[in-house]
Amino acid sequence: MGALADGCSVKIAVVGAGPAGLTAARILAANAHRPVVFEASDWIGGRTRTIRRDGHAVDVGAGWLASFYTETFRLLAAVGLDESLDQLDLAGASCLSDHGEIIDVPATASEAISTQIIPLAEKLRLVAWAAALLIRQPQANLKPDLRFDKIDADSHITRAVGPKAAERVFTPMVSAVFSDLSELSAALLRSWVRAGVGARFYALEGGMDSLWTRIAEDLDVRTDTPVRNIAMGRGSGIDISTDSGSSERFDACVVAAPITRVRSIIEGADLPHWLDDMRYAPHFRVYAAIEGTLERADIHPLESDEHVATVSRGPAGRLWGVIPEGHSAALVGSSGSWSHDLIDASDAAEQLWGRAREIDRGLFELSDAVLVESIRWDEAVPVMAPGHFARVKTLEQRPPLVFAGDWLVQPCIEGAVRSGIGAAKHFGLA
Ligand SMILES: Cc1cc2nc3c(=O)[nH]c(=O)nc-3n(C[C@H](O)[C@H](O)[C@H](O)COP(=O)(O)OP(=O)(O)OC[C@H]3O[C@@H](n4cnc5c(N)ncnc54)[C@H](O)[C@@H]3O)c2cc1C
Fold first, then answer.
1. pTM above 0.85?
2. What do you get for the CA distance between the two ends of the chain, in Å?
3. Which of 256, 259, 290, 308 has the fewest CB atoms within 10 Å, i.e. is most exposed?
4. Which atom of ligand 1 has the smallest separation from the CA of 382?
5. What's the CATH fold of domain 2-47+209-278+384-425?
6. What is the side-by-side order of every strand in the sheet holding 401-403?
7. Where are the CATH 3.50.50.60 domain residues in the chain?
8. Pocket of ligand 1, candidates 37, 47, 320: which has the most ligand atoms within 8 Å of its Cβ, to mutate?
């Protein structure tokens, strides 16, 4: 443990060049340590990936930052990218499809009261539930309230508000972003609803990956270098072996790749059994562009059995990236249980698009598109099941082996960034 115990500059392997790993590496490097970042893929940013083709810059993973992402905004300012934030205009764009009938998402309190989506009794309970939430969680800081961690989000909402609200309001909203309501801790849902009140959403000009490529410029990042084995040395240090057969000894290691990918390659560390039960929800999405102008629309199916999570379409400008002049584009995403079947299907794009056209009749044919990108995310979001936050609290984090990653905090960029800061704190830094 020599150098670590002495507080000297140490050589630290960081596994994964996503938001968590790069945040940790940046702090370590700023404090005179020597991080080396190993990245399996040929891009930087992990699940915040931007694909650039024919003038399009498509955010195929994370597409927005929320105003309550305090640490991410601090990072943007530190690297001079805070001026590149582009507030997304979501007003009036969102609709719900109720088995083919398009309904506006209620935008005001009076619209919410008159909406037919849920019965009046549940609307009143929803208002009472939301008011109690604001009182119990005065800060919109994404911190989970552990008192609600043991119960699943579906049971919590059904009990507190009613079955229609669970099915028609929360299930479509949550399955579009995370996984099924019944799989998630109620503490997760509550922290997001709380944070979402009055939140604003932003994209990054030029693509969501620009923050991470900027940070990586000042670091030693080795792309196309998957780590195959992380072995705690008998004496001091950790041996990192890569797929290319190289092996190198480090003083310490920050493991910032999805936990399902790496837990089996860590040797010699006593890891808690619950890490074996962690899983991620998959997600499949298709981005397609045509020449010409399309009206802007975001359509979400109201009933979760309608499968497609979101259809967003619009003209040139910003929409999950940059669409060049004279073009329009649409992004269709699938989440929830259907993603599991779709992710392995060879005709997944056609299936998804066909289903989306039944929901959004203004959507163009895939065969008319001039550009199509299909993106399969096997590990899109960590499933934070009931009890997850309490289990994470029990995880002992101590150098030489430290974990980072969204699964430790919240399933989003901000969660990953905070986990990276947390990892650096374990080295006595912040
Ligand atoms: C489709 C989609 C949409 C999303 N939308 C949003 C959004 O709008 N806003 C938001 O805040 N969040 C969103 N997210 C979530 C957000 O992208 C993640 O929470 C965040 O990227 C997690 O960062 P991370 O560093 O923990 O993990 P990752 O971003 O997954 O980074 C981990 C890195 O580790 C690498 N790796 C894996 N195995 C190895 C190995 N053996 N050796 C070396 N490297 C390895 C991976 O290639 C990857 O680059 C979205 C995610 C997806 C998939």
1. yes
2. 21
3. 290
4. 19
5. FAD/NAD(P)-binding domain (3.50.50)
6. 220-222, 34-38, 11-15, 252-255, 401-403
7. 2-47+209-278+384-425
8. 47
